[in-house]
Amino acid sequence: MYSSLSKIFVYILIFFSFFLNFNAHSANQKKLYSRKSISNYFSGIISSNNNNNKLALKYFNNLNHLKNNHDQFNREIVFTLVQTKEISELFSYLKKLRKKNLNFFDANLLLGISYLLEKNYIKSSSYFNSIIQTRKFSNLEKLIAQSLLSYVKVFENRLHDYETELNIISKYYKNFALINNAFISCYLDNKNVDENFLRIINPDTLNFTRYNFFYINFLVSKNRNDEALKVLEKNNDIFNANLLLDQTKSWL
């Protein structure tokens, strides 16, 4: 009973926020307040909460007129597009939003990634920097943006001093910096690749065994198959439970 009342209370709050986000003097007021718009909005939210994301997207697609008037709607449709794996549509949708409507973490993160994939490093950096410089975003969100920004700078300039940036990461996230260091050194194919990967997969220190997969594939890409096999055999018990590594072993 209490659970049902809580859900009703949440829906009532959403209902009021739906109206309060609109400009009362908007020329599109009738369309925004229409019974059909409200019905589609709540049907979309309920479908999303029930993990019926395709149905949620169907309802939300009838509400494109909300995108520049209702921030919560943008969050809802971004989440739904990710869940339905409509990535191209997601990027297209975000790029059409006004800047003032991109004031949430997911939007900046996804646009930064989109422009990174397009090799538009200037725009990509601007979105990651926006996250880093905005006070309301959490330390973890800023850390993710800082990490991606370091990749942007390396992709743009292979001589970029990425280690200096990684060294300023808070001591509470030092392991995160070590993982980043391993992947960036792998991309640059520098002399520290083995050292950096071995540091994070060492069972006597960090023991991040999941990263064995990436290290083994790096070794294979360099035709160092014998070394890759040694890593597999050394950790045979762990890899038997990992389908990706089991498949890798069959290739070797």
TrEMBL record:
Gene3D superfamilies: Tetratricopeptide repeat domain (1.25.40.10)
InterPro entries reported for this sequence: TPR-like_helical_dom_sf (IPR011990)
Protein name (Swiss-Prot/TrEMBL): Tetratricopeptide repeat-like domain-containing protein
Protein source organism: marine metagenome
